[in-house]
Amino acid sequence: MFVIIGYVAVCASVFGGFVLAGGHIAALFQPLELLMIGGAALGAFIVGNDMKAIKATIAALPTLFKGSKYTKALYIDLLSMMFELLTKVRKDGMMSLEKDVDAPHDSPLFNRYPSIVKDHHLMEFICDYLRLMLTGNLDPFQIENLMDVEIDTHHQEGHVPIHCIAKIGDGLPAFGIVAAVMGVVHTMESVGVPPSELGEMIAHALVGTFLGILLAYGFVGPLSSLLEQKLAESSKIYQATKVVLLAHMQGYAPTIAVEFGRKVLNSTERPTFTELEEHIRLSKVK
Length: 286
What we know:
Layout: H1 2-20, H2 31-48, H3 51-60, H4 72-92, H5 98-102, H6 108-111, H7 114-117, H8 120-134, H9 140-188, H10 195-249, H11 254-264, H12 273-285
Helix pairs in contact: 2-9, 3-9, 4-10, 4-11, 4-12, 8-10, 9-10, 10-11
């Protein structure tokens, strides 16, 4: 939603200012210039990336127009679920989670938190480490290193579409210059036409440079920044889960372990201690 609002603001400012200055908006409508710039950018994108990167970039584009799913309510559900898991371990032993971990989508405990269960990658992260903990005594420091490696891998994979879109944005001004040069070449080979037509042809050529720069800094470039913010946000939930599990492995009570995880969260989405405590209390009543 904010992407569309931003695009509207960019267009209104640039084209509105041009019109207010006395310019004719029809002069900026140059589909052939757009074809050269857009086609060249698309071709360079295909040349410069393998199929995995292309698919990752295409898959990431729809997420740019959606709001964040990482809300305070989601984190409250995560921490409440972790509290319930660790409380069950403390009361009934680690092996009491075996059925839940082996079939999480059939687990009554997990299914009380549908917002967490539908996140396939997060559920896989939680269940994998609970499964490792089921195998016996493990060194928390080794598990922490393994978690860090997995989170880094998630981060590296998320950077692929960011890198691809940033490269497209970086190349658009150059492709705009290419389109402008092509227009100038066409103008030079038409020196016999009346000066009024020559002026129009030069104006059309300059539109290529204008479009390349506008598309780069007003449309494509900001998308890579937004994707980077979304990636950082998506990594935070794994970091909170990691801290809770490690605190449990080091012998802390479920209440303290969950509090460690709460402290990892960004202040904009972090529930207060009272909010989390109240939610857990109400969950017990249900």
